[in-house]
Design goal:
Layout lengths: L3 E2 L6 H9 L3 E4 L5 E4 L4 E3 L9 H9 L3 E4 L3 H9 L9 H12 L3 E8 L2 E11 L2 E9 L4 H15 L4 E5 L3 H5 L3 E3 L1 H12 L12
Parallel strand pairs: 8-9
Antiparallel strand pairs: 1-3, 2-3, 4-9, 4-10, 5-6, 6-7, 7-8
């Protein structure tokens, strides 16, 4: 079940408190906010990412330039720009841009010939990273960004990569579902760890 819960707010303190309890916001087609705590919860074990042979070739050949926090606002805008609709309302975009300026929300970008080809963004608290959304304009770009994300999380000593809901795409990449009680136990441990994803923006 999706497990809608009592509404916190999108101010930085409220949003960070919600994530620390395993709760996150989504907007419906009217823009109304809903706060969700799925059970079961989808996660991607950092040592279990499934990288296909073709994607390994893409990474080895350096098809994409991979960066961190170079174009956060553009990544979240592109994630929200979907013809089929989006849960990323203007209010949510503004809230995550504030978290980015505070050093909690981060993006991973994949560039091809100087243009943004794909990317993803999420929130980091302690040793937990909460993946929010990804997009691609070029085949394999978002997957390359995910590989880069996982490699960085491993290097930085993170222990939890939350991907919220299971999809066929995430399942192929190695995501699994765990009961909410188990998720909360792992979350409590993760957020206490003194980890840093990246330095906060300077401007």
């Amino acid at each position: 079940m999706h497990g809608e819960v009592t509404r916190p707010d999108l101010a930085p303190a409220g949003l960070l408190a919600a994530y620390s309890m395993g709760v996150f916001p989504m907007a419906d087609e009217t823009g109304a906010l809903h706060w969700l705590a799925p059970d079961p919860r989808a996660i991607l074990e950092l040592d279990a990412l499934q990288v296909s042979r073709s994607l390994r070739s893409v990474m080895r050949r350096g098809v994409f330039e991979l960066t961190i926090n170079r174009a956060f606002a553009e990544v979240i805008r592109r994630c929200a720009d979907r013809g089929e609709g989006t849960w990323i309302s203007p209010e949510i975009r503004a809230a995550y841009c504030r978290l980015h300026q505070m050093g909690y929300a981060h993006s991973v970008e994949a560039w091809r010939d100087g243009a943004l080809a794909g990317g993803l963004y999420g929130v980091a608290i302690g040793g937990a990273f909460f993946g929010e959304s990804m997009f691609h304009a070029v085949s394999n770009a978002s997957k390359a960004a995910l590989v880069s994300l996982v490699e960085r999380l491993r290097r930085q000593g993170f222990v939890l990569l939350d991907v919220q809901f299971m999809t066929e795409h995430l399942h192929r990449l190695g995501a699994v579902e765990i009961p909410r009680r188990e998720y909360e136990r792992r979350l409590r441990r993760a957020i206490r760890l003194p980890r840093r994803f990246a330095e906060a923006p300077t401007a």
